[in-house]
Amino acid sequence: MQLTLPFRMRIYLIILFCVLVVGMIGLMVIEQFSPLDAFYFLIVTIATVGYGDIHPVTPLGKILVLGIIITGVGCFVGVAANSIEFMFDERERRTRIEKLNMIIGIFFSEMGTAILKKICAYDPAADKIQAVLVVSSTWTDAEFSRARTVLLNQTYSIDCPPALLQDLHAFLMHHKGFLLALLENPQMIEHDSFTPLLQALFHLTEELMARETLTGLPRADYAHLSGDTTRVYRLLVLEWLTYMQYLKQNYPYLFSLAMRRNPFDRNASVIVS
Questions:
Q1: Could you tell me where in the chain the CATH 1.10.287.70 domains are found?
Q2: Which of 66, 119, 138, 247 could make a disulfide contact with 255, Cβ separation 3.0–4.6 Å?
Q3: CB of 3 closer than 8 Å to CB of 82
Q4: How would CATH label the architecture of 5-90?
């Protein structure tokens, strides 16, 4: 089993700390070093500097130092190597997240915002959601967190009439190629919340395509399609809020346009006044 980088780092740090504690106590007892001299000797030894101004003189002290060199130097090198690896991994992770959010931004520009507007018009609890999601440039992380809590506890129930289903069918058919391209993107698999949204949206597309007509269906079938639509709507609302927080923190100019196109703000206008 391959150990993860944070786990390996913790192991190295724990061992290095134990070496320092045991080494200091041993040198103070065996070699009669002062605490400062013992710590100084350990650092220059483990760091492989080795000035030679302080050194053990007793056989037992020399044996102790040999143990310190074998364990301490190895752990020090391990900590240094893992620290460098962590920095490279963190940089790669940030680059990957940046690319993912660019794709999410394209999704909302092409599909997400329009779908939210279509479904929100048939949401009986739209007023409550709209009151929460009139985001402004003054919002803090705490306000985004409070809004997310409200949305997570919100009961979503969309009773889809044939008109909404036909509208969604036409829209999703027109953007099916775009949706398939997103699903084929290997980076999407790494996103915990956006991937389920794409899967739910593609499932709704398949459900709508599988029916020859969307009028005159049995009540149970409308309930089934309403459940699929509600699932998409809930995931979309939460993902939209997450993306708005990301834009506010990183791209104020994109956030400004997104707020002027806010699907939950009845007064939103793309025209700057």
A1: 5-90
A2: 247
A3: no
A4: Orthogonal Bundle (1.10)
What pLDDT digit, counting tens, does each position of 120-179 carry? 999 988 888 888 898 888 999 999 999 999 999 999 999 999 999 999 999 999 998 898
The two tokens of residue 167 are: 């509208």
